[in-house]
Amino acid sequence: MHYLMTNKGMILNLDQALEALVGYNVIFFGEDHDSRVAHEGELTLLTELAWRDASLVLALEMFERDIQDALNAYLEGTISEDKFFELARPWPNYQEDYRPLVELAKARGIPVIAANMPRRTAAVVAMTDTISSDVLGKDSKYLPRKLHLDSEEYYERFAARMKKMPHSAPMKGLNVEALYKAQVLKDAVMAASLEPFLDHRILFCCGRFHSDYHLGIPYQLQKNHPEIKVAVVVCAQSVIDLPMMDRSRIADFIWIDK
After folding, report:
1. Which domains does the chain have, with CATH numbers?
2. Which long-range contacts (CB under 8 A, 24 or more apart) does 149-154 make?
3. How high is the pLDDT of residue 171?
């Protein structure tokens, strides 16, 4: 059985939760990438929302902007899955965790947004501490019109996360401010990827740091579109160790799998 708890502590069964979720324009499911519960929750929400909204759109952090044409071609059936894999740089856990989402979208005719900034570009920003068309080169076409670096809370949470990284982590020796710029650039690019579809309901699957506390992608989106109604969903197992005050702030709905 699946339940969602609101940030006010109300327990909703799946039908009640879906009734609530269709009141939002963009629904973020913030996952831990290795969480089986999260991936099952994403597939459940995609399946159920698609039955309720024929114009639903799926957005994925797991694909980068420059492979959108390949993704579209695969969804339309004009290239094979092997060719798609060759072009799309799928994550190592794609087959088990994200392929079910893409295959459902393909079967149901659901558009899928390859939302993320190319990794190479985020790496350049992290190394140079600069966001400019000169630095980004051909990827500068993905730059959003506005990028908001003004969230002190997001910076503090990001810096704290960097401090907890093991010393052997590749990013450990880099400048925190530069890494933060790269992080916010990714968020802003992912928010901007939704622009052509803001007249649709969107389910966005992303790592939960990109959506927790309505920071990250939701922050960038709502700074530019304050009228957009955004819901954030996170799994119960991700918040169990948090103080109660944080549990009520981290998301609008907590996914409970029983």
Report:
1. 2-89+99-257 (3.40.50.11550)
2. 149/180, 149/181, 149/184, 151/215, 151/219, 153/213, 153/215, 154/184, 154/215, 154/216, 154/219
3. 58
